[in-house]
Amino acid sequence: MKRGRNSTPFAISLMAVAWIAGNEAVAQERASVADGDWESPSTWTDGIVPTATNSTSVLVKHTVTLSAGSEVSIDNLVVAGGRLVVAAGATLRIVDGESTDIGFADGGTLDVWGTVIGEDGITFKGMSAVKPASHKGRPNVTSE
What is the average pLDDT value for the chain, to the nearest integer? Predict the structure, then answer.
């Protein structure tokens, strides 16, 4: 009687490699490549819209708008030379993560007409107070 080889260890190893490779491809840095709506794939590298679960960091280098009805949760967001607009009726939720949760560099700006929610423990970098006369929008910023 000829013995067959057990292919179970090979199949398990192959599945583990595929799972690890798949997770590495999903969770990575996303950056804007053009002005546009946050939820439009054409706004982002590789056409992947960033979320808190598929991105290790998000870099906004263009004018990116969260449109009315949008609800975005994100961590490690940097507005670097770009402009992030939270339109009336839109919600941006900054989640608490391992690093700086929201930062600004190179003159990046945040225009809030909708709602920005900061989860308990979030950290900010590169921010300063804005004179009320020069502030754009009617901010509704809360902390949970």
Answer: 76
For the chain, the domains span: 29-143
* Strands 83-86 and 63-66, sheet pairing: parallel
- CA–centroid distance for 36 within its chain: 15
Nearest one of 103, 67, 69, 65 to 84, comparing CA atoms: 65
E-strand ranges in 32-139 read 36-37, 55-60, 63-66, 71-74, 77-80, 83-86, 91-94, 102-105, 109-112, 115-118, 124-125
Closest CA to 126 of 106, 96, 99: 106
Place 13 in a pLDDT band, splitting at 50, 70 and 90.
low
